Amino acid sequence: MYETPPETTEQLVHGLRPDEAPPVPLSVRAGGKWQSRGTVGELRLQVALTEGVAESSAAEAAAGWGNDTLLRRGDDYVWIVRMDDAANASDLETALESHVDGLAAATDPIGRPSDIAYRVVRVDEETLGLVVGESTTVESLRISAEGEAVNVSTEAA
Questions:
Q1: How far is it between the farthest Cα atoms of the chain?
Q2: Kind of pairing, strands 65-73 and 35-36?
Q3: Which helix (H) or strand (E) holds 139?
């Protein structure tokens, strides 16, 4: 099907060659027992957003995807997303905030625990974090940027 297949869902969604739009640099360092769950990608970001915003808005907000890393510790998750530029990060931040507001207000049709909390963190001009989990973790989690690296830690970690 492909002589040279796409390497990212961004390349697949936009019909790009593997040498076009490579992932932007992103290194995530996490203290405690956080484990990397890998890269999620633009397509899954778009799909996740459709739960809280219109499909066209989700596609537009996800279109500036540059790279991401998903972390997990028990039932808590941190999704770090680095966009191509600050404008795309602002678009994603708006969509994520709307998505999170919708999730928090929803009567839960898919069986999420009622005590789950959400928080969107603007890490730097191009990077966002979405924190999902127990409210104490969501509130105490610290996400900071140091050059191209992102640090994730909790007060207890």
A1: 50
A2: antiparallel
A3: helix 135-140
